[in-house]
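quick one
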Amino acid sequence: MIDSPLLPHLDAYIDGRWTQPASGKTFKVINPATGDHLADVAALAREEVIAAIEAAKKALRTPSSFEQRHAWLTGIAKALREHREEIGRILCLEHGKTWKEGAGEADYAAGFFAYCAEHLDLLKPRTLDEKPRGCTWTVQYRPAGVVGLIVPWNFPIGMIAKKLSAAIAADCASIVKPASKTPLTMLALFTILDRIVKLPAGRANLVMGSAGMIGDTLLSHPDVAVVSFTGSTEVGRELIEKSAPQVKRLTLELGGNAPFIVFEDADLDHAADQLMLSKFRGNGQTCVCANRVLVQRQVADAFVDKVVERVKKLKLGNGMEPDTDIGPLVDRAGYEKVRQHVEDAVAKGAKLLVGGGAKPLDTEWGGFHPPTVVRGLTRDMLCWREETFGPLAPVGEFETEAQVIEMANDTEFGLAAYVFTRDEARAQRVIAGLQFQHIGWNTGSGPTPEAPFGGMKQSGFGREGGAEGIYEFAEAQTIPRGA
Ligand code: NAP
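structure w/ NAP:
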């Protein structure tokens, strides 16, 4: 069992109190690297989720000043930085990513709270210079109200930071639902909110248990104004359908299928280094991970050699060991999906260059899949169409700019893409042709607190980060005032 000063409670947090479910029901949290049973965490019933919504509604009766919000946001950022090592350790134990990466994710999360603290002015009323029809026009940014925040397991602290920071900035009250595989990092965050930041009762509530029930309760409750969801496109579609009866406002950050494009004039060593960062971060389990590597024919041999050389050096193991580069997949389904994608690619003619050979898993938890590179990626392969969400880099080839733009866009997803070329005019043409929201040019860098991030096409709608991310939780109210 896990022991941590940040985990004095494994219960829900409702109306400023740690709350045990009346049913006494719990669910297990397992370490994907070892199969160790880490904790039994509270699973709520519908009435208890409704109690959380009512607590949030009550909290909104006392609006907070900009100064107060600034203090909360900077307090959370400071506490996350101070506790980065312990948060990183909890994250490593329940997710499997390395401890170092987990601590880095705590820093990343802190950045969103700090950004929102520094940009509260975005929410101050503004008066329009023009006075159409003789009125003075003022725009007031009102809190959207009670908001439901549902997050996945792949960035247990990073994803909630994007949503909760903006919700606090806009003076909303939140109902937070972590992924069932990674509730412990969220419990650690709530310990910080409760003990260190002392957020008023009802401002942030933590609910855990059946995802379907919690999602349905948030979407069907008239007092929930916004549901902000990060997760799979499959669940996102379900939420869209269920949001219709109440015309509920949604923000959906969904799946990706990122092309990583390398032109013949690129700095190949730099591109290979960036591919390693993009592809193997979180063991390939990120929505912005390079999913399809597309290399211009004349440099394909040279580029592939550089990637294989780097992949051979990666050390697979328990993320608690200091020299581990890559941990386990989060569960059996995740492991089997990668194994299936590798086998499917090889069966359809791809050449295995490094890795592969994974055996079927006989446990439900984790599974260490070797980092794998295959060459000869084609459109009929599963790893072309689907997000592999694991350590497989499939490499395909192209001849012309027009061809690679068409190949890259051949997916229903539109989240992240990467382009490597030293030719500025070419980069501008290609980026303009790509139907992806986040496009790294000569970098594999992912999102940052300062910039809007989100999906095009079936990767969702709404933005997180930047001014756009804050406005997702505000209602712009317009007041024309006559003479
Ligand atoms: P998921 O299965 O869709 O789950 C995400 C969250 O939704 C979890 O908290 C889950 O709870 C909950 N959930 C599941 N079914 C639900 C329902 N019917 N109603 C309401 N909530 C429900 O996704 P995942 O496997 O955790 O995450 C991986 C996916 O997230 C990938 O597709 C990845 O690309 C995407 N992602 C996107 C972004 C982005 O910014 N666009 C960022 C990160 C990840 P339980 O855990 O209890 O099932």
